[in-house]
Amino acid sequence: MSEVKQIPLFPLRMVLFPGGRMDLQIFERRYVDLVSDCMKSESGFGICLLKSGEEVIQDGTQQTIHRTGTYANIIDWDQLENGLLGITVEGSTKFKIVDCWQADSGVLQAEVEFSRTESVGFETIPLDDEFSGLSDLLQNLENHPLVEQKNLAINYNNLWDLGWRLSELIPIEVEQRQQLLELDDPWERIESIEELVSDLANNT
Predict the structure, then answer these.
(1) Cα(199)–Cα(202) distance, integer angstroms
(2) Cβ-Cβ contacts under 8 Å for 41 (sequence gap 6 or more)
(3) Which of 41, 54, 96, 126 has its CB surrounded by the most CB atoms within 10 Å?
(4) Alpha carbon of residue 52 to chain centroid
(5) H-helix segments, 57-204
(6) What is the pLDDT of residues 135-176, one digit of tens each?
(7) At 120, is the pLDDT very low, low, confident or very high (cuts 50, 70, 90)?
(8) What CA–CA distance (Å, rounded) separates 141 from 164?
């Protein structure tokens, strides 16, 4: 049985994968409190892609989210020049939402089922030579200054890592990233990435 756990959620217009890193500016009181609680308890929160609504809730509007996300841990924090709290989070495990509700604090809470395979540190799947082209592409993307500063730990001989990092870094729509996250088969994810990369190459 997969582990089911209650976690707070942070809906965003971005998709995070296991092993990925993301910088966030925290300014809403509910999320300042959430981050404070997570740092005190050394726990994390789930990041989910918004289906509708805005990251900052407006009166009379509602957020809806995709049901697959990634659990994130805070690995760094600082006060930014604009006075806001800045944090860096790192994805660890994919999850699927079983149930979701809004707490009195305004933060979404969810019962989630964690993936047994899509998790940092899970058993590696060695790469075949047929994926050398995608591996080269990932190395080129990693050398981009904006990616370089994330200091990602990438295992270039692991199919999981190749799929996760390319899903985050190739220039595609956020909904396409979500579709890649929702795939449970790493081979199917790589095949989908190959098609997307081919489409990108043909459209340039």
Answers:
(1) 5
(2) none
(3) 96
(4) 18
(5) 132-142, 145-148, 159-169, 174-182, 186-202
(6) 999 988 888 877 887 878 888 889 999 999 999 999 999 999
(7) very high
(8) 13
